[in-house]
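User: Please fill in residues for this 202-position structure.
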């Protein structure tokens, strides 16, 4: 009996879930055709119907991670500085799900740095994130909640700050509990509002 389109889509969903489980357990360093096949309970030969090469698998995993990240529940944004705050908090590993996603993202950096195309894809992803922050900061400036300044530069600084905080929280979770991460974001936002340098606090 021939396979239907529904069968194919169901199998693809199964493959996606297997890829995600391998990523969550082992990061990008453990993402191999053999590991995904074992998680799926299938042969590596079956996976070649979906991924011709390891690079195809990695590219797909990055797309899947981006979809999962975008689909995560978001905080009520409000407007002005509150919207900037919500956007920054949504990036941080403040929940188990966000921690898993961030751990996978960080583990993907080494893979992306070694491949020009994947590196360019990552650069585009982070550029889109900066663009979103720039627009939020510009709106907050129009409301008088952020001091005047180049919103693109401020967005780049905010993104660099929050990604650095992600890394520290992942590497030393006891030193960066949720409460401290939130407090550091609020310090950064207070500096943005005042037009000064980034506040340092703990």
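Assistant: Residues filled in for all 202 positions:
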């Amino acid at each position: 009996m021939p396979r239907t389109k529904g069968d194919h889509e169901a199998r693809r969903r199964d493959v996606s879930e297997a890829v995600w489980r391998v990523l969550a357990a082992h990061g990008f360093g453990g993402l191999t055709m053999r590991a995904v096949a074992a998680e799926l309970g299938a042969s590596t030969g079956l996976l070649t119907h979906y991924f011709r090469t390891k690079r195809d698998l990695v590219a797909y995993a990055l797309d899947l991670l981006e979809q999962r990240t975008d689909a995560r529940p978001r905080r009520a944004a409000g407007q002005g500085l509150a919207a900037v705050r919500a956007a920054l908090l949504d990036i941080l590993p403040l929940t188990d799900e966000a921690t898993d996603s961030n751990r996978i993202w960080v583990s993907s950096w080494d893979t992306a740095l070694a491949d020009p195309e994947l590196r360019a894809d990552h650069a585009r992803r982070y550029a889109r994130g900066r663009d979103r922050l720039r627009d939020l900061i510009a709106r907050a400036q129009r409301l008088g909640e952020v001091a005047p300044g180049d919103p693109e530069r401020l967005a780049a600084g905010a993104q660099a700050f929050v990604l650095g905080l992600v890394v520290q929280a992942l590497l030393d979770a006891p030193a960066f509990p949720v409460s401290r991460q939130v407090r550091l974001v609020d310090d950064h936002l207070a500096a943005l509002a005042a037009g000064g340098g980034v506040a340092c606090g703990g």
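For context: Residues 116-142 form the longest helix (27 residues).
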